[in-house]
Design a protein that fits this description.
By secondary structure, the protein is α/β, with parallel strands linked by helices. 32% of the residues lie in helices and 23% in strands. It has one domain: Rossmann fold, CATH 3.40.50.150. The longest helix has 13 residues.
Length: 192
């Protein structure tokens, strides 16, 4: 059995137990949360690279999977330690692409390196879409749901310290009724 599959079966995620419990409760408390979002950058990358297989890492309730599959022929698996439906996904040895969309900012800073290593061990290509703006919702302990809010340059430094090289960076903004604008950092990383 591969290391990453052993890690997933044993702990199901490099996340600490406290955060897994928070997000398991989150999906029950906010049933509309985690339905998935439509990200043009993600669809663009899938269209350019024609991936056969992909993993949505932190897929919530699978809405982004359904959206992408409606435009592509990619076979997409979902994994989310905070959602009972996806927490025990049998992960493939390798995927053509692993992506996370609106996930990493929900991960405690001390767990980020383990999560990134885990994602990168599952594919030579990773796509990250990271929200740089506070979330609308708060956790039960009072913290903003985006527990790791970092500026663009700090996220880039985190990824530069890992095995994959950054191939593409895009920052895009959209109108947000709560904050004026919502900024997202999009990264394409590859093992070289």
């Amino acid at each position: 059995m591969l290391y990453c599959q052993t890690l997933c079966i044993t702990t199901r995620s490099p996340l600490n137990t406290h955060m897994k419990d928070i997000y398991t409760d989150w999906h029950k408390t906010f049933p509309g949360s985690g339905q998935g979002k439509h990200y043009p950058y993600l669809l663009e990358q899938f269209s350019l690279h024609n991936y056969s297989t992909a993993l949505d890492y932190g897929c919530g309730k699978g809405g982004t999977i359904e959206w992408l599959e409606s435009f592509t022929s990619t076979d997409i698996d979902g994994y989310d330690p905070g959602n009972e439906k996806y927490r025990n996904t049998e992960l493939r040895e390798q995927y053509d692409c692993v992506y996370s969309a609106d996930v990493l900012e929900h991960i405690e800073r001390e767990d980020l390196d383990g999560v990134i290593r885990h994602m990168q061990s599952l594919s030579n290509t990773n796509i990250q879409i990271i929200d740089l703006t506070p979330a609308k919702k708060h956790l039960k302990d009072g913290r903003n749901a985006h527990v790791t809010l970092l500026p663009k340059h700090e996220w880039i430094e985190i990824f530069e310290a890992h095995e994959h090289d950054i191939q593409n960076i895009l920052l895009y903004s959209e109108a947000d009724p709560n904050y004026g604008t919502r900024d997202r950092l999009c990264l394409l990383t590859k093992r070289t």
